[in-house]
Design goal:
alpha/beta, Rossmann fold, 2 domains, 14 strands
């Protein structure tokens, strides 16, 4: 651990306080002054005790900028400031020029009390008073002259006064957090986040904004799922939509319809049905025993060809369920093309395919949240589009095939696409 990252038990407590402060502001969609160039930027990931020169806490913001935070309960013109600045000097050789170097503290004493205002005035090109110059000099005394100006451009001060224990800051955070949950229990939300961050800090681990929402759900403080609310509520809506979608895809896993044999035969369920689904490969492939899941993961773009009744729809359904149940698999986006034709005869686009797949959910709010997630996964190349029923599009089948080709041409190269057709 670097000298800037060393601290006592009190410093460890304040590190958790700083993380909780950033997380609550993020979930509420409230910017933290000085840490974001635009009002909508927020912390989306927090890393504790990293291998960086400034390693107490690293906050990754929603616009990609990182904030390397030295968290000290009290800082004056003393060893705590020296250790912090030396950590910043070491950090200048790594990362992006857009990354920030942050001093987070509960108490600022001596000349350091004027450091935040001094830096703001310097960035704005305003005149510095004697106290401001002294505050900056307290920093630059430990900085090589050739990098002093660049370092000062990146330094920010995050003052969180009276934040350990019962305080005005704690009350403010509880009030902000209470808006996120049904019962308004902001104190429980702040406590749950603090407990989660304390465990992460002890393990030198990390968490994302999705993890924060999940942690609150495990602590019986489920965040309200509202796709039009602040970021925390939108995240909760996305998680709820994803869970409902996965339940729907996996509910019929392994089910085989026997009505083609006799109308009164009930369906049967076979465990591990997807493992028994095999495909024959074209283009000179000699291995006729390729598993469907293996084939879909090896070849991201496939045409699944089979005669009516050969099991194409079952294969896509089972593939979707298998992917939905595997956190490391791409997000399956399962679409019935004939249903898409009924809903609209306009141009087929990524958004219309996503909307058709998200239409499986009954809650309109969750449908919108799921559609956003699906679109993002497609844009990131971490989704698998599964299109069934091309032959059922009738006289529009050729038109639909061309539309799908146009969609494929515009996809991320790693996004998967499987189309089922009889020929």
């Amino acid at each position: 651990m670097s000298r800037a990252g060393q601290g006592d038990a009190v410093g460890g407590v304040f590190r958790v306080v700083a993380a909780t402060f950033l997380a609550v502001h993020s979930l509420r969609g409230q910017p933290v002054a000085g840490l974001a160039p635009s009002g909508d930027a927020r912390a989306v990931r927090l890393d504790f005790e990293t291998d960086d020169a400034t390693d107490d806490l690293v906050a990754t913001m929603s616009h990609g900028r990182r904030c390397f935070v030295s968290a000290k309960r009290a800082v004056g013109n003393n060893r705590h400031l020296k250790d912090t600045v030396l950590g910043w000097v070491g950090q200048m050789d790594s990362g992006s020029d857009e990354d920030l170097l942050v001093l987070a503290a509960e108490d600022l004493t001596g000349v350091v009390k004027d450091l935040d205002e001094a830096l703001r005035r310097r960035r704005a090109g305003r005149r510095l008073a004697d106290g401001h110059r002294k505050a900056i000099a307290a920093v630059t005394r430990y900085v090589p002259p050739e990098i002093a100006e660049d370092l000062l451009d990146r330094v920010r001060v995050l003052h969180i006064p009276s934040s350990t224990g019962t305080s005005l800051t704690r009350t403010l955070l509880e009030s902000m957090a209470g808006y996120l949950v049904e019962d308004g229990g902001g104190a429980a939300v702040v406590s749950a986040l603090s407990d989660s961050f304390a465990a992460l800090a002890g393990d030198a681990s990390a968490s994302t904004e999705q993890d924060w929402v999940r942690a609150l759900g495990r602590g019986s403080r489920r965040v309200i799922a509202d796709g039009t609310g602040p970021p925390g509520m939108r995240l909760a809506a996305g998680l709820a939509a994803h869970e409902a979608y996965v339940r729907g895809l996996t509910a019929s896993r392994g089910r085989i319809d026997l009505t083609l044999l006799a109308e009164d035969l009930p369906p049967v369920t076979m465990d591990g049905l997807v493992d028994g689904l095999r495909v024959e490969l074209g283009q000179g492939e000699t291995d006729l025993g390729y598993g469907l899941v293996r084939a879909a993961r090896r070849w991201r773009r496939m045409l699944l060809v089979g005669q009516p009744g050969a099991g194409k729809s079952v294969a896509l359904r089972e593939l979707a369920a298998d992917c939905a149940d595997d956190p490391h698999a791409p997000l399956p986006i399962h679409v019935r093309l004939p249903e898409l034709m009924r809903d609209s005869s306009e141009e087929v686009t990524v958004d219309s395919l996503v909307a058709a797949a998200a239409g499986r959910l009954s809650d309109p709010g969750l449908r919108a949240a799921l559609a956003r997630q699906m679109r993002q996964e497609l844009d990131d190349g971490t989704a698998l589009l599964l299109c069934d029923g091309l032959d059922e599009c009738g006289t529009h089948a050729a038109w639909m095939a061309q539309q799908l080709k146009d969609v494929i041409d515009g996809l991320h190269p790693r996004a998967g696409f499987v189309v089922a057709t009889p020929r």
